[in-house]
Amino acid sequence: MLKPETAPDEGSKKGTEGAAQSDGPDPAAPEPQRPVLSRQFTSSPRGARLARRMAVRHLGEWGFPPMSEASCTVALLVAELAANAVRHGRVPGRDFHLLVAFDGRASRFRIEVSDACPDRLPVHPVSLTAEGESGRGLLLVDVLADRWGWEPRVPIGKTVWADVVATP
C-alpha cells in the first residue's frame, strides 16, 4: 500500500536566508578517494604481463581508455618496471608488488614496483651500445617518466617508482 504524499509543514522548509555561502571546498572535508591499484604478482614473465594488463584495465575504469596517451605511457612504464623486477630483482618464492595510483588534483600517476632483492639497484642510463643486450628499458623509463628513482623497501628489497603527468 502506498503512503499518501504530504506537504511539508512551514517549519520544516529550508530557505537560503541566512545560509553561509561557500567560497570553495571545505578545508576540513576529507580528500577525495584516489584511485589505486595495489597487487602482488608472481615474479615471472607471466606475472609481468598480467601486471601490465591489469594496469590498463584499471586505467580504463578510471576514465583513461586503453589507447589513450596516458594509458599507453603507464602501460609501458609498468611493463618495463615489472620486467626489471622479474629479471633483476627476482628472489625464488617471492612475488613482486605493483602500485599504480592516480592523483586527480595533480593529474599525475605514480607507478611503484617492489621486489625482494636488496641489491642490483637500478642506475640512470648513461650510454647505449649497438651490441648491448640490455639497458634500454631504464632509458625508456627515463624518457617517458617526468621523474623516477628507487628507495629501499622495508623489511627487505627495493621499490622502483616513476611519476608521469596524465594528459587529458
Overview features:
single chain, 168 residues, alpha+beta, 5-stranded antiparallel beta sheet, 5 strands, 21% strand, disordered N terminus
How much helicity do the residues have?
A: 25-40%
Assembly state of the chains shown: single chain
- Gross morphology is globular
Distance between the termini: 50 Å
The helix/strand order is EHHEEHEE
Largest sheet: 5 strands, antiparallel
**Lateral strand order in the biggest sheet:** 1-2-3-5-4
Q: pLDDT under 50 segments (min length 5)? A: 1-27
How many helices does DSSP assign? 3
**What radius of gyration results from the CA coordinates?**
23 Å
The residue-averaged pLDDT reads 80
Strand content is 15-25%
Count of strand segments? 5
Which class best fits the helix and strand makeup?
Answer: alpha+beta
Notes on the protein architecture:
27% of the residues lie in helices and 21% in strands. With 168 residues, it is α+β, with helices and mostly antiparallel strands. A 5-stranded antiparallel beta sheet has the order 1-2-3-5-4, with helices on one face. Helix 1 (45-61) packs antiparallel against helix 2 (69-88) and helix 2 (69-88) runs antiparallel to helix 3 (136-144).
